[in-house]
Design goal:
Blueprint: H1 2-15, H2 20-35, H3 41-51
Helix pairs in contact: 1-3, 2-3
Length: about 55
């Protein structure tokens, strides 16, 4: 799950298509993945930083 999310976010960042709205939605999803133990805390933090758009 981590690798899939990371690759997807990297592509969006490279293309310049990572929006705040998309990032906000992804925060919910990766939170669910963390709760279901599909991500470690470290992986969660890394992905969270990737989807945070200011």
């Amino acid at each position: 799950m981590y690798e899939t999310c990371k690759k997807q976010y990297e592509r969006k960042i490279e293309k310049g298509t990572m929006t705040k709205e998309y990032g906000d939605k992804q925060v919910v999803y990766i939170g669910i993945f963390l709760m279901n133990e599909l991500l470690t805390q470290e992986q969660y933090q890394e992905l969270l930083e990737m989807v945070t758009v200011e």
